[in-house]
Amino acid sequence: MPAERVTGDFGKTLREARERRGVTLRQIANSTKLSVSQLEALERNDIARLPGGIFSRGIVRSYATEVGLDPEKAIQDFIAHFSHDEAVTAGHPTSEQNEDNEALESDRRMAGTFLWLLGVSVPIAAGVLYFSFVGRRPVAVAKPPAAEARAAESKPAEPPPVAAAAAETTPAAAPGAATDTVPPPAPPADVPAPAVAIEDRLTVGLSVKRPCWVSASVDGQRVIERLLAAGTQQTLDVKRELVLTAGDAGAIAVTLNGADAKPLGKSGEVVTTRFTTANFKDFLQSR
Q: pTM value?
């Protein structure tokens, strides 16, 4: 059965969907870790009692999922109903921002394709040059037996014995005479040490010390956007980047590739942090 869409009075529609499901606010609160007072405020359209921004939208998403509504459409209707309230629309990307994000992702894909083509074409070009060079080298041709016989006949006669004796009586070089010396080979040039390679993967561990709203996007994909209970452990595998938003920066401890990271911020502070495979060491605690 397809999920319903929120229409008309926003809070009333949510309440009617809940009543059709036969669930209570307490049951939704237990399954979503949200407070009953927040759920009641949402049904009354009393958005002033909600935390605002991405946190209000997260509450709408969790509620809509529990009562069988389409969570994405519910968020769109929530923003449309309360578009005059900056606390609701704060942090929601505009169409221009979406276009910028799409353009950035397109540029990344084009750069990746170019690097792949470059990596394939360089070995092919090297192979073509190598075989072209080998093909131009002269090939030695063996002389036929007749040619070897003629070459032997044309060799000059051996010198007479007198000349040989004269050669034998030639005095040897006097002791102490200068002799040519072969200079020692030059020492090999220093080979530069290879540059330190950037780690190509990043494993991020999240440990929640008290209930905290968390939003996490890994390599451009949203993987977490909900309230995490105390004691929750999350492990995220990152190839390029992680964008992490915590509603209470002091409630989360982070590890990067198994090493403890610096605190995200102060208790009660909303903080967004961007970790990449290139910069994550900047966030590690000093030894």
A: 0.40
| Non-local CB neighbours of 260 within 8 Å, separated by 6+ positions | 253, 254, 284, 285
Indicate the residue among 44, 65, 89 that finishes a domain: 89
Which CATH number covers residue 39?
Answer: 1.10.260.40
Contact criterion met (CB below 8 Å) for 255 and 228: no
**Largest separation between any pair of C-alpha atoms in the chain:** 130
Q: Which residues pair with 109 in a beta bridge?
A: none
Q: What is the pLDDT of residue 231?
A: 95
Q: 244 is written with which tokens?
A: 């992490």
For the chain, the distance separating the N- and C-terminal CA atoms, rounded to the nearest angstrom, is 56
Number of domains in the chain: 2
For 191-216, write each residue's pLDDT tens digit.
Answer: 444 444 456 889 999 999 999 989 99
Range of the domain at 221: 202-283
Is the pLDDT confidence value at 87 over 70? no
Q: Which residues contact 79 (CB under 8 A, 6 or more apart)?
A: 57, 88, 89, 92
Comparing CA positions, the residue from 245, 244, 242 lying closest to residue 219 is 242
Q: How far is it, in rounded angstroms, from Cα 266 to Cα 260?
A: 17
pLDDT at 126: 75
Burial label, 206 (beta-carbon count in 10 A; 0-12, 13-18, 19+): buried
Specify whether the CB–CB gap between 43 and 77 falls below 8 A: no
Counting Cα atoms < 13 Å in the Cβ hemisphere of 268 gives 0
Q: Where are the alpha helices (DSSP H) in 158-283?
A: 161-168
With cut-offs at 50, 70 and 90, classify the pLDDT of residue 83.
confident
Residue 193 lies in a domain: no
